[in-house]
Every structure is written in structure tokens, then in C-alpha cells.
Amino acid sequence: MHPLIEKQTLSEQVRSYVLSLISQSNLNPGDEIPSEKEIIERLGVSRGVVREAFQSLSILGILDISSGKKPKIQKINSNPLETIFNHAIVTQQVNYQQILGLRRAIEVDSAVLAAMHGNKNDYIKLRKIADKMRKSLLSSNDWDLFIESDIDFHLTLAEMSQNPLYALMLKALRGALGGSISAGLLNQNNHDEHKKIIDIHFDILESIEKQDFVATGLKMDTHFKLTMDSF
């Protein structure tokens, strides 16, 4: 028996073996790992055990197990984390104040990095999103479109930061983001308060366009402080 095949359930042991194999072989996204048949021959376990291990690694976003092909290493994606965050919200294990606290910790630095690394195309994209936010909230009162645009604004900043983990976290929080933004609008449900929301986003945008990362960080922190104070 292979030395790793001990203590855990067989499928957990196979999963641990595959993770060790990925690490020790310096595999990258898109690289293939041994097939079911090869793992069976190496470890002396059943096909069902290997399939269960592969399936669990697929759910975790580690393996792509498309039918008829060798398993491949997946690029990191937000799906597993998104499931956890949505479950936490639905089962009331966390609240929107706590979601906002997490966002604040991530997004202040994300905005600072966006101001440092952004380019002309980024600014154009961000301004189009901000214009859509303003129109949807102040003119057409389309909350759904505003929420979608607000999420896009913050996700674009995360992508501009050049730190893939920031974008990963915000994508995972997408469902919770929608809920927290909607709750914030309900707590600030008048034209003057809505205008303040739009104004702070344009203030952040203008600081980013000037590459003033200090002002950008301060304005993003102010944005979250005002939102959290409204709850």
C-alpha cells in the first residue's frame, strides 16, 4: 500500500495524494494530472474511490474533470468561496455589517493599488460604470441596475489593483454585495442620500484618474464608514 494511504477515508487519502502530486510536480493551471486508471494502478484503490476524490477536488475548484479527458489543474475561481459566503448569509451566521467590514478591509487597499496601477482604458471603463450608476439611481430609480453597476465599479477596482486575490474575494462576495448594497439603499432612501452615494464614487474615480493613491484610500474608507454608519 502506498505510504500516504492511511488514517483518512480512502477518497480523502487519494485527494491528499493528488494535492501532494500537484505541489511536488510544480504543476500549473491547464496541466494534466494522471488519469483515473493511472491513480488506481499507483494506489491500488477502486475506480469509485478515485472518482469521489476527483469530484471533491473539482467542487473545490482545483481540478477540471471534463468527461473523456485527463483531469487538468484549474485556474483559481470564486465559486467555492461564493458558496460559503452565500451559505453564511442565508443561515444568518454573518450579517451585512460584517460583510461591509470585510469589504472595507479589502477595498481600501484595492482602490489604492488601482490608483497606482490604472491606465487610460481603465479610467474610461470606470467612468462609464460610474455614469451608469448615476443615471440608474438618480434619474431612472432603477435599483437593480444600480446594484449591478455598483458591484462592477468595485470589481473593476479590484481587477485594476493587479492583485488577483482581491478580485477573487469580491467575485465570491457578489451575492452578499448585492444584499448589502440593497440594504444600504433602504437605509439611505432619499434623493439627497442617494446623491451622496454617487458623489463619493465620482470622488474616488477622480482621485484614481489623478493617480492620487493617498486621497483614493481616504475616500474609499470614508465611503465604507458612511455606509456602515447607516446600518
UniProtKB/TrEMBL annotation:
Q: Which GO terms describe its molecular function?
A: DNA binding; DNA-binding transcription factor activity
Keyword DNA-binding on entry: yes
Keyword check for Metal-binding, yes or no.
no
Name the domain of life this protein comes from: Bacteria
Listed A to Z, the keywords are: DNA-binding, Transcription, Transcription regulation
Against InterPro entries, the record matches this protein to: GntR_C, TF_FadR/GntR_C, Tscrpt_reg_HTH_GntR, WH-like_DNA-bd_sf, WH_DNA-bd_sf
The residues covered by the HTH gntR-type domain are 8-76
PANTHER family on file: TRANSCRIPTIONAL REGULATOR, GNTR FAMILY, UXU OPERON TRANSCRIPTIONAL REGULATOR
- In its UniProt entry, what is this protein called? FadR family transcriptional regulator
Task: Name its species.
Answer: Providencia rettgeri
